[in-house]
Amino acid sequence: MAWRDFERHPPRLIGRYHVPWPPREDRILTDWLQQNAEEPKRAFFLLSMRWHPDKFEQSFGPVLDPDDRHAILQKVKRISQSINSEWCVLRRSLQGDLSVEDIINQVDEASTPADTPDSPAADTAPDHEVEEPHQVAIDSQHRYSPLLPRAP
Question: Compositionally biased, Low complexity: which spans (predicted)?
């Protein structure tokens, strides 16, 4: 509900405390699935569009407070990366016969506590195009990196 209100009637100048941030950055997708009866693929699509850095900037960029702009966009980027990391775990889990609770436990095992809004953001996006990974590794700061197949 808060997101819909924010989207329909954004403040004239959006500061970091105006954005209805998810309660935890490390469980956005799984928390959404627990609260909403959605297909996981649809939930991933909706959340990844909502928190996609380019889409967010396109929708709200003109009214972002210049003093908070960088912090807001960095947090949006971390949230987007977190959703993608969760989706990697969730997608693998959906191929098996696991309950939603089992899937949530797997995501919890792969994640760490969320960053606070004031913590520095780690810029983990590659500066170049990367080959599509077959698997990903999630480090202790909940960043994911591709595990590329070895050349024969």
Answer: 110-124
Low-confidence winner among 10-19, 53-62, 140-149 (lowest mean pLDDT): 140-149
Predicted pLDDT at 118: 45
Please report the DSSP string for 60-75 in residue order.
HGGGB-TTTHHHHHHH
Q: Where are the domains of the chain?
A: 2-147
Within 13 Å, how many C-alpha atoms sit on residue 149's CB side?
Answer: 5
Other Cβ atoms less than 10 A from the Cβ of 25: the count is 21
- Pull the structure tokens for residue 94: 């959906």
Residues 82-94: b if buried by 16+ CB within 10 A, e if exposed: bbbbbbbbbeebe
Cα–Cα distances (Å) from 112 to 5, 26, 80, 119, in that order, read 30, 7, 16, 14
In this structure, is the dihedral angle defined by the CA atoms of residues 68, 70, 73 and 77, taken in order, positive or negative? negative
Q: Which residues contact 3 (CB under 8 A, 6 or more apart)?
A: 20, 50
Alpha helices, H only, 52-117: 53-60, 69-94, 100-110
